[in-house]
Design brief:
The protein has 149 residues and is of the alpha/beta class. The chain is built from six helices and five strands, in the order E-H-E-H-E-H-E-H-E-H-H.
Amino acid sequence: MNNDDGGPVAICSDHAGYELKEYICDWLTEKNIPFVNFGTYSPDSCDYSDFAHPLAEAIEEGECQCGIAVCGSGEGVCMTVNKHQKIRGALCWLVEIAKLCRQHNDANVCCLPARFIDKETALQIVQTFFDTEFEGGRHQKRIEKIPLD
């Protein structure tokens, strides 16, 4: 992913992912990586889909280059973003998964399970997600078969 000229990163969470999302937002700010925060904006109970759908739409429309979506298990936001045809959301709880989902699957949303990873692991996952390029080649035809339209 090219954070220099590919547009801002989209980020969102539900209440369970709020604290980790805010930590990642602070890190993005420190790294001078532009981002758009789609919420939630507090730890009050809320529905992840209310934030994950707008994040996915912003990526589909080219307003953001990629996304980070956080909820308790990571599954809810991942299921939600993957309802969008141009989104390839990947649940990442290990650095190795973040690397492979970019190399082989050209993932454009990194979904994080806030209740199962610590903050430093989350930052390592996000950095790896940003730094790893899609390999293309034999993987390209597989990616082309994902959308239904």
